[in-house]
Write a structure and sequence with these properties.
By secondary structure, the chain is α/β, with parallel strands linked by helices. The chain has one domain: Rossmann fold (3-Layer(aba) Sandwich), CATH 3.40.50. The chain contains three helices and nine strands; from the N terminus they run βαβαβββαββββ. The strands form two sheets. A six-stranded mixed sheet has the order 4-3-2-5-6-7, with helices on both faces. Strand 5, helix 3 and strand 6 form a beta-alpha-beta unit. Bound molecules: inosinic acid and magnesium ion. Magnesium ion binds next to loops.
């Protein structure tokens, strides 16, 4: 059994403010395509992408799954949706919700690096540095957080809590 914390870890207002500066950094670097990892980053991608003043920026979604309905990563990452995309020669910004063990991001990078991209950079809303088990980092990070399981703003536990506007920690009871 899990319960939501009494107060948000990161409020919607804090997210909004951070996204303004993140968007400026990303805009200054310059990208052709945002490649967003479903499902956890759907809200982050929608909000961030609309703050990037690049009218012809392309948005594409892929799916990566490693968790099932547990809060413990299984380590094997299944990637789907890439076969329909033509990313060759493009500057790609890969967006995920959270960098935890790093398994997902590492698998995505290794797969994407085979596709003759012009460049690849990565962006995550949240980084749990202390949880890393593989060598992996993100080029753009919204917030550094401690080793706590979080939900809201797109992030889930068993596909629930995604629509909460703030980010909350989930505690086992
Ligand atoms: P990693 O492969 O262990 O880095 O995990 C990355 C994926 O696990 C993320 O894309 C999330 O879907 C999920 N995840 C990791 N930590 C959390 C969390 O605290 N809340 C919700 N999902 C999480
Ligand atoms: Mg995810």
């Amino acid at each position: 059994m899990y319960k939501i914390s009494n107060a948000p870890l990161i409020t919607a207002q804090q997210i909004e403010t951070r996204l303004d500066s993140l968007a400026l950094e990303i805009q200054a670097t310059g990208f052709d395509v945002i490649l967003s990892v479903l499902t956890g980053s759907y809200i982050f991608t929608a909000d961030l992408s609309r703050k990037i003043a690049t009218p012809d920026l392309e948005i594409a979604f892929i799916k990566a799954s490693s968790y099932g309905e547990s809060t413990v990563s299984k380590g094997t990452v299944h990637i789907s949706g890439l076969e329909k995309l033509d990313l060759k020669g493009k500057r790609i910004l890969l967006i995920d919700d959270i960098l935890d063990s790093g398994n997902t991001m590492k698998a995505l990078i290794e797969t994407l690096e085979k596709l003759e991209l012009a460049s690849l950079k990565t962006c995550v809303l949240l980084n749990k540095e202390s949880r890393r088990v593989v060598d992996c980092h993100a080029d753009f990070v919204g917030f550094e957080i401690e080793d706590k399981f979080v939900v809201g703003y797109g992030l889930d536990c068993a596909n629930k809590y995604r629509t909460l506007r703030d980010i909350w920690t989930l505690e086992e009871v």
